[in-house]
Amino acid sequence: MPWTSTNRIYAKPSNTSSGEGGPFSLTSAKPASTAAEDTGGRFELSDHGYGKCSVKLLHVYRDGDYHVIREFEVSTELKLASESAYIAGDNKDVVATDSQKNTVYLLAKKYGIKTPEEFGAVVVNHFLYTYRQVVEAKCHIIEYPWERLQAGIPHNHAFVFAPTATRWCEVFQVRHEAVIVKSGLRDLRVLKTTQSAFVDFVQDEYTTLADAPERIFSTIVEAEWTYDNMKSADFDNAWLTVKDAILEKFAGPPETGVYSPSVQHTLYQAEKTVLEKVSEISWIRMTMPNKHYLNIDVSKFPANVTKGDPRHYIYQPIDKPAGLIYAQLRRRPKSHL
After folding, report:
1. Is 157 one of the annotated active-site residues of the chain?
2. Is 97 annotated as catalytic?
3. How many C-beta neighbours within 10 Å does residue 210 have?
4. At residue 252, what are phi and psi to the nearest 5 degrees?
5. Is the pLDDT of residue 102 over 50?
6. Per the omega criterion (within 30 degrees of 0), is the bond before 321 cis?
């Protein structure tokens, strides 16, 4: 792509100024361009960047009467080679955040949208190869979970908001290096009323929790993963495979279910299934915080107020404090022996 805004980025200093302290004065000191120069080597700007947050975008692809939609919330972030905007208040290298917002809309119009990951790659590539002062670019995208309305058959142009889980991705690239893609899901809240236990854990002087051979299992799953092959990855299929693996290992078959001896075991089984099914995923990390539902002890109440249908069970939801379980499963490096 051609470089743009050359005249503004590399504008020469004006020669119309005169007098002491002018641009060509031998006595004028060169202003500091880095934090290290500004502080005599005491400090350095170890990280910096800026961008536009939460650019909302609805893309509609109209193929005759059949329409396809994707709604994104896009955030961009750029890192410049120069520190001058911070140190000297010099904005000549700064691509305004409003321009970044406009770029998101224009790239979506020009190239269309297939997946969050592919659109994120288009965005970071544009910033890196349009503005040579940009050395790193990042794009974070949240997808809003619309599904096609089913009215006996799939509707041509009507959709329903179905927030079972939220999809997101983060695309990052350093100039002259490969694109790095991280995908994820969040807010996948699940609950099952049986076939979950937690027993045989450490019992010592600090323990008050009793073994629970039968308990409610509920959690809000978050997952993130990276790809080792951007070109061959099927991003939509990978995201659905991760979600389905979590639900499969959590719930099991509809009539019989699956036994969970711990949150850790269920989490590991889901991660293993993902790596077995999606060869392009190099590692996956999940977190599963406990969302407790405690049995209400009615034994202290008289029988005449507790007697009723024995099929009724009452639990108290407890969100905090909560246990937090996480793990990251990755492929082992191949041996070169």
Report:
1. no
2. yes
3. 9
4. 80, -170
5. yes
6. yes
Within a 10 A sphere around the Cβ of 298, how many other Cβ atoms? Answer: 12
Average pLDDT in the 85-103 region? 97
User: Considering 52, 126, 138, 243, which one is annotated as catalytic?
Assistant: 52
Binding site for 5-hydroxyisourate, by residue number, is 97-98, 198, 215, 263-264, 290
| The amino acid at 150 | Q
Most distant CA atoms of the chain, gap in Å: 100
> Helices (H) and strands (E) in the chain — how many of each?
8, 12
**Residue 250: how many CB atoms within 10 A of its CB?**
25
Any alpha helices (H) in 154-262, and if so which ranges?
Answer: 235-251
Contacts of 228 (CB under 8 A, 6+ apart): 280, 281, 282
In this predicted model, what pLDDT tens digit does every residue of 182-213 receive, in sequence order?
A: 999 999 999 999 999 999 999 999 999 999 99
Task: Please give the model's pTM, rounded to 2 decimal places.
Answer: 0.88
